[in-house]
Amino acid sequence: MPKFLKEGNQLITVKEMPKVFEEFSEPRKQKFMHVRKLKEAGKNVVGTFCTYTPKEILYAADIVTVGLCGVSQEPIPAAERDLPENLCPLIKSSYGHAITDTCPYFYFCDMVLGETTCDGKKKMYELLGDIKDTHVMMLPQTSKLENGVELFISEMERLIEKVEEKFGVEITEEKLKNAIHESNENRRNFTRLLELSKLKPAPFRGVDMVNILESYDFCFSSTEKNDMVNKAYEKAIQEYESIKNIPERKSRKRLLMTGCPNAGVKDKVTKLFDEKGVDIVVIDACNGIKEKKELIDETLPPLEALARKYINVSCSVMAYNERRIDDIGSLIEEYQIDGVIEVILQACHTFQIEALRVERFVRDEKQLPYLKISTDYSQNDAGQISTRVEAFVEML
Ligand code: BJ8
C-alpha cells in the first residue's frame, strides 16, 4: 500500500524522517515537521511544478498542494549523475532534491502533478515517475486555438478521474465552484498587496517581494494565505508611511523583472539591485504578479472557466506568446518603470529565444534600458553579474 494512505480513518504509515534530516538547518527541519504534521492530520499532499496547474481541482478534493521547483544549488551535483549538465538548474535542482530525500515537500507528497511545458521538465517527470506516482497533464502549446480549451478540459477530466480514484474522493461541481471562489479571493488579496508597489516610493524592495511570493506559495490553506497576505499588507502600509517623505527613497529608479522563475537566484541577482539602490517594483514571472491578476470567471461552468484562465498564462513555452509582451507593456505604464531586467536560467531555450522579442519591445517601443542576465544557481558568475548590474544601474 502506498505510504501515508489511510485505511478507513486510520493513518497506517508515517514514514520516518530521511537519514540526512539531522544535518538540516533549523528552518529546513521546521518545513519537514510542518508537512509531516499535515500528513499526521490525515491530509493528502500533491506536489506541483507549474503555474499551469489547475490547483482548484486539488483544493476541491481537500488536497494540500506543495511547490516542488528546486531553488538551490546543493542537490545539483547529485542530479547531474542522471541528467545532462547543460540543463536548466530549476529542473536539476528539483530532481536532485527528489533523489536525495532533501526536499520535505517531495519527500512527503503522495503524488506529483506535472504538465507538458518545456522538454526538460517533461522528460524529468518520466524519471520522477520511477520514484513517485506522477501524473502528467498534456498541455496545448498555444492559447490561440479554440480546441486548446477543449484539450485542456479533457486533460482536467483525466486529472479528476485520477485524483478521485487515488484518494477515494469525489470532486463535484459544487466543490469546484467553492474552490474557485476561494482561490479568486486569495488572488484578489494578493494582487492588492503586490500593487502597493505602484506607490512612490515602493514600500518593498526586490528581495522582500521574492520572499513574500515564496511565503505565499508555502501557505497550505486559503485562510493561511489570506492571513499572511493581510499581515504583509499592513506591514507594507506602515513601511510606506515611514519612507514616503525620504527624498533618497522617492528618487530611486524603478525596475520590472521578467523571465524565468527567479527564486533560485534571489541572493545572486535580485539582492544586487537592492544593494545598488534601485527598486524592483514588479515581477512579471511565474513567481510574480502574472498569474495572480487574472481571476477565474465564476459565471462559466467550472472546467471551462479553469481552462480559459490557465491557458492564458503567458509562459514562453506557448507558441505565439503575444500576451506576454502586452502584459509587460501594461506593467511598464502602471508601475512607472525606468528599466527592464530579464533573468534567464541556463539552457531555458524558450525564454532565451523569446528574450529577443522582449528586448526589441522594451528598447524600441518603450525606449527603456533592458538588461538580460543568463545564469544558473552556482556562484561562478556572481562577480561578472555584479559588474554588469553596476554598469546598468549607472546608465539608469
Ligand atoms: S508557466 S515559467 S512554471 S513552465 S526555466 S523549467 S521553462 S527550462 S519553470 Fe515554468 Fe510553468 Fe512556464 Fe512558469 Fe523549463 Fe525554462 Fe527551466 Fe522553466
The percent of residues in helical segments reads 40-55%
The averaged pLDDT comes out at 91
- Radius of gyration from CA coordinates: 21 Å
C-alpha end-to-end distance: 60 Å
List the helices and strands in order: EEHEHEHHHEHEHHHHHEHEHHHEHEH
Would you tell me the structural class of the helices and strands?
A: alpha/beta
Shape by Cα distribution: globular
Main beta sheet strand tally, sense and closure: 4 strands, parallel
What is the tally of beta strands? Answer: 10
Beta-strand share of residues? 5-15%
Total helix count? Answer: 17
- Give the low-pLDDT segments: 1-14
Lateral arrangement of strands in the main beta sheet: 4-3-5-6
Q: Which cofactor or ligand species appear?
A: Double cubane cluster
Overview of this protein structure:
The longest helix has 22 residues, at 146-167. It is globular and about 60 Å long. Strand 7, helix 12 and strand 8 (279-284) form a beta-alpha-beta unit. It is of the alpha/beta class and 396 residues long. The model is unreliable at 1-14 (pLDDT under 50). It has helices at residues 26-40, 55-60, 76-79, 89-100, 104-108, 119-128, 146-167, 173-194, 206-217, 222-243, 247-250, 266-275, 290-293, 302-310, 322-334, 349-365, 382-395, and strands at 6-7, 10-11, 44-48, 63-67, 111-115, 134-137, 254-259, 279-284, 339-345, 370-375. The strands form three sheets. It has a four-stranded parallel beta sheet, with helices on both faces. A four-stranded parallel beta sheet has the order 8-7-9-10, with helices on both faces. Bound molecules: Double cubane cluster. Double cubane cluster is lined by residues 50-52, 88, 90-91, 117-118, 120-121, 260-261, 286, 313, 315, 317, 345, 348, 350-351.
